[in-house]
Design brief:
By secondary structure, this protein is an alpha+beta fold. Among the domains are: 125 residues, MutS, DNA mismatch repair protein, domain I (3-Layer(aba) Sandwich), CATH 3.40.1170; 141 residues, DNA polymerase, Y-family, little finger domain (Dna Ligase, domain 1, 2-Layer Sandwich), CATH 3.30.1490.100. It is built from 16 helices and 13 strands. The strands form 3 sheets. The protein has a 5-stranded mixed sheet with strand order 5-6-1-7-8. Strands 9, 10, 11, 12 and 13 form a 5-stranded antiparallel sheet that branches. It has a 3-stranded mixed sheet with strand order 3-2-4. The N and C termini lie far apart (55 Å).
Length: 385
C-alpha cells in the first residue's frame, strides 16, 4: 500500500489545562482563564479561547497577559491533575485504536488504515471522540486524512471541539488558502523569513521551486515544501509506556555503601534529566533497579506528573530506593529508568514562581550544552569523582 493512502487521525484536547480546571470548577466555564506562574515573572502555560480574544497566548509573560485581559481568572496549574487526565484519555484510545502514538500530553495520532472496510473511518473516529468526551468530560477535536501533517492541520481547523476530514483528492484545495503558520515546522523565525519573501499562504509556498526552499532553509526547507503539498511519509509510531531512557552501573566490587549508592543515583538522574530537557521530552514513570550479590534483581516503579526536573526526580528516586533496599545485602548493580515519555518542555517556568531555580536550571543546561554533560554537577556527584 502507498503510504499516502493510509488513514491517519490526529486528536488534540482543546485548551487542555483550562478544560481540566473547568471540570473541577464549572464557574470558570465561559470566562477568560489564564494558567501559569502567578508572579509578575510568570509565564502563560495555557489560556481559554475567551482570553485569546484579548491577544493572550501561551509562553507570553503573565504581566503582559494580565494587562491585555484584566478580568481573567489566573490559576497556577496542577501538573498532577493534567497528567491524570492525560492518562485517562490515552487509556480510552488504547482500548479501541489498532495503532496509536502519544505525541504529547494532550495529542495523539492514530493509524486506522483499513477501518473503512469494516466500519467506516469517519464514523469510527466520531464515536471514539464521543467516548472520550463522555468518559473524561474533556472537549477534544480531530482531523482525519491520509497523513500526519494534513490531519494535524485539519484538527486546527476543526477547533474548538470539532471534527474535520480531508479526502486525498481535496488535500491541496484544503491547504491552499491557509496561512503558512499552519504548517508544522514553521516557527516564528521561519515564518518571518518566508513573509519577507512575500509568502503568506500555503498556496504561494507550494508554488516555489523545491530547490529554492532548500537553498533558503536547507533540509528543513525540503520538508516544509513537501508539507505544503500535503506530502508526509512519517508513520504513526506505536506508543508504549515502556518508551524510556535509563542508566545503570555494575560494580567491580559488590557494595553496601548506601551513601555512595544514593550519590550515584543522583548523578544518573542529573544526566537523564538533562537529556530529557535537551530533547524536549517529559517523563511520567520512574523505576529504580537493584541487583544483589546473589543476582536477585528487584525494581520499584512509580507514576508521577510529567516532568524533566532533577529535584523532582531526585526526591522520588530517593524514596523508591529506601523502600526497595530492605535486605541489606551487598549490591552488584543499581540503575534508574524514566518511562512514559512524551514531547514537551519542563513546566517549571509555567507553574513555579521560584525565579532563582528557573535561572539556575537554564544556566546549568547552557553550560552543559557548551562544555559537556559532566561540566557542572551537584556536590554529591563531585564526591563520587
Amino acid at each position: 500500500m502507498n503510504i499516502q493512502d493510509r488513514t491517519i487521525v490526529h486528536m488534540d484536547l482543546d485548551t487542555f489545562f483550562v478544560s481540566v480546571e473547568r471540570l473541577g470548577n464549572p464557574a470558570l466555564i465561559g470566562k477568560p482563564v489564564i494558567i501559569g506562574g502567578l508572579s509578575d515573572r510568570g509565564v502563560v502555560a495555557s489560556c481559554s479561547y475567551e482570553a485569546r480574544k484579548y491577544g493572550v497566548h501561551s509562553a507570553m509573560p503573565m504581566k503582559m497577559a494580565l494587562n491585555l485581559c484584566r478580568d481573567a481568572a489566573v490559576i497556577r496549574g496542577d501538573m498532577d491533575q493534567y497528567t491524570k487526565f492525560s492518562r485517562l484519555v490515552t487509556d480510552v484510545i488504547a482500548a479501541k485504536a489498532p495503532v496509536y502514538e502519544k505525541a504529547s500530553i494532550d495529542e495523539h495520532y492514530l493509524d486506522i488504515t483499513g477501518m473503512d472496510r469494516f466500519w467506516g473511518a469517519s464514523k469510527w473516529t466520531h464515536e471514539l471522540r464521543q467516548t472520550i468526551i463522555k468518559e473524561t468530560g474533556l472537549p477534544i477535536s480531530y482531523g482525519l486524512s491520509p497523513n500526519k501533517t494534513v490531519s494535524k492541520i485539519a484538527t486546527g481547523e476543526a477547533k474548538p471541539n470539532g471534527e474535520k476530514q480531508v479526502e486525498k483528492d481535496s488535500i491541496q484545495s484544503f491547504l491552499n488558502p491557509l496561512s503558512i503558520k499552519r504548517i508544522p515546522m514553521v516557527g516564528p523565525k521561519t515564518y518571518q523569513l518566508l513573509r519577507s519573501m512575500g509568502i503568506s499562504t500555503i498556496e504561494s509556498l507550494s508554488s516555489i521551486p523545491i530547490e529554492m526552499m532548500e537553498s533558503v532553509l536547507g533540509k528543513s526547507g525540503i520538508d516544509i515544501w513537501r508539507k505544503s503539498h500535503g506530502i508526509d511519509f512519517t508513520p504513526v509510531v506505536p506508543y508504549s509506556e515502556e518508551k524510556s531512557i535509563s542508566k545503570e552501573q555494575t560494580f567491580e566490587t559488590d557494595t553496601i555503601d548506601v551513601l555512595m549508592l544514593e550519590q550515584l543515583l543522583i548523578s544518573m538522574i542529573e544526566k537523564l534529566c538533562f537529556k530529557l530537557r535537551k530533547k524536549e521530552k517529559l517523563a511520567s514513570v520512574v523505576t529504580v533497579k537493584i541487583r544483589y550479590t546473589n543476582f536477585d534483581t528487584h525494581t520499584l516503579q512509580r507514576k508521577m506528573a510529567y516532568t524533566s526536573l532533577d529535584h523532582v526526580m531526585i526526591a522520588t528516586v530517593r524514596e523508591l530506593f529506601k523502600r526497595l533496599y530492605e535486605r541489606r545485602m551487598m549490591i552488584r548493580l543499581i540503575g534508574v529508568k524514566f518511562g512514559g515519555l512524551v514531547s514537551g518542555v519542563q513546566q517549571m517556568d509555567l507553574f513555579d514562581n521560584n525565579e532563582k531555580k528557573i535561572r539556575l536550571y537554564r544556566s546549568m543546561d547552557k553550560i552543559r550544552l557548551h562544555y559537556g554533560t559532566g561540566s557542572i554537577i551537584r556536590a554529591s556527584g563531585m564526591m563520587l569523582k
